[in-house]
Structure formats: structure tokens, C-alpha cells
Amino acid sequence: MGLAKSKKTSSLLSQLLQALPEGVAVPSAWLSAHGISPQLVRKYVESGWLVRLALGVYARPAFAVGWQGAVLGLQRLAQHPVHVGGLSALNLQNLAHYLPLGGESSIHLWHDAAPARLPSWAKGIALPQTLVFHGEQLFDPALESAGLAKATTQVRDWTLAVSAPERAIMEVLSLVDETPGSFSHAAELFEGLPALRPALAQRLLAGCRSIKVKRLFLFLATRQGEPWSRKLDVAHIELGSGKRMVTRGGRLDARFLITVPESLSAGAK
To answer: Is residue 259 exposed (0-12), middle (13-18) or buried (19+ Cβ within 10 Å)?
Structure first.
């Protein structure tokens, strides 16, 4: 009986090592679902086959778990619909142009289509970067996966779910605050993007719940004047009514009725 139990334990360990690459956060719920009890987890930790990262999450030893490994654990193992978004998605796709030396200090993650609470370990795991979670419902639920792409990682053939440029820039715009510098930075990011896909941008704008984001996007697209932006059907995008103060001390853009920094106010009044 003891020998049979030993063989089963050895088999589970072998399966675990085959299924899990180094450098990925492994939720205890995933281990339990694959037949590895809490008692067996403790044994693996004591034997050095696993290390405890925080309450409810583990990893294989030897390689440190970085932010990508933590997000892969959330996306692939915890099956939580979180994605890399905003500035972090642009950086990951080499579209931000201003990546600080040493990389980002904060990684922006969006779970606006996920009403379920994040696992507690997601905010308790120690990483070189801070994981910043945005839970605002920026888009209609029907657009949960619209504008998402896959980014390669250094973990086997595993990929990260990230916002494509069209969605990422809207997430950036949702975080623009009243300071002119915040608006100007978003405008610089917008100007540095490659040609966006008008059909996808139209769909996201139509399903976006933020009037501010929609007006900002259309203002910047119109100001840029690229051919793709002329294909947007503004008449079928709900823009609300009345003026909106976006930038403190800015000038009012007559078309989209938002205040913009003086440096961007050509054509505004």
C-alpha cells in the first residue's frame, strides 16, 4: 500500500514538472484541480520541488517569477480574464517609444469584463514591478475579447493576452487626468501609433462606455488626419451632450466640446 502511494506521488510530481514551466506562478486551486492536495504541496515545498510565493500561490524553483509569469498564472492557470492593457500593452508591442531604462515600474492590467474578484495572491505576490489592476467597465460586455492580441513570452509557447493598439490607446485615454502633461503624453503616444484598423476602432468606440475616451480619441484622430481616421463614422458613435472639462486651463475644442492643452488647441476655440 505504501509503495503504491509512493508511486502515485512520484507520478503526480512527474506530471507537475512536465505541465509547469519555470518562472510561472501556480495557484493552489490549480494544483488541487490536478490532484495535488495541500498536504502533497507542503511535501513538495519541503523537498524543494516547489517554492511558496505568497498565500495560495507557488512556483518551481531556480527561476524567479517576474510580472509575465504572474500574469500567465492568472490568465492560463487561474483562468481569470485579465489582460495587459494601456501603456503596458503599447510597451510590450514596442509602440510607446519612451520605455524607461530598466523597464516599467508598473504593469497595467485590465479586467473590466471580469466581475469575479481577483485571487488574493494577485496583489500579494512580491515582484520587481507593481501590478496595477483596472476594474472599470470601459467597454460593453459583448466586446470582452474585441481588440485583444497575443504576445509571445519566454515561457515555452505560452502567450500573453494583451490589448491591440486600438484598444490599448483607449485604455490610456481613460486614465488621462486634468493635468496638461497627462493629455500631452497620451497625444504623443497616439501620434506614434501605426495606422489603426478603422473597423476595429469603430467597433470599440461604439461599445465604449466612456464619453471622455470617445471624444478624446476622435479629437486626436481628427487632429492627426491620417487616411485611416477618415473612415470612422462619427455619426454612429454616441458622444453625449454638453461641454467636458478634460484639461485644467485648456481651450475648448469646438467640434468635440472638450478642453485641450494650449499646445494642441489649433482649431479649438
So the answer is: buried
Domain holding 13, by residue range, is 1-65
Q: How far apart are the first and last CA of the chain?
A: 84
pLDDT tens digits along 174-232: 999 999 999 999 999 999 999 999 999 999 999 999 999 999 999 999 999 999 999 99
- pTM comes to 0.91
Domain count along the chain: 1
Residue in the block written with cell 500593452: 89
144 inside domain: no
* Separation of alpha carbons 42 and 46, rounded Å: 6
- Assess if residue 40 is contained within a domain: yes
Which of 88, 81, 201 has its CA nearest to residue 137? 81
- CATH code: domain of residue 27: 1.10.10
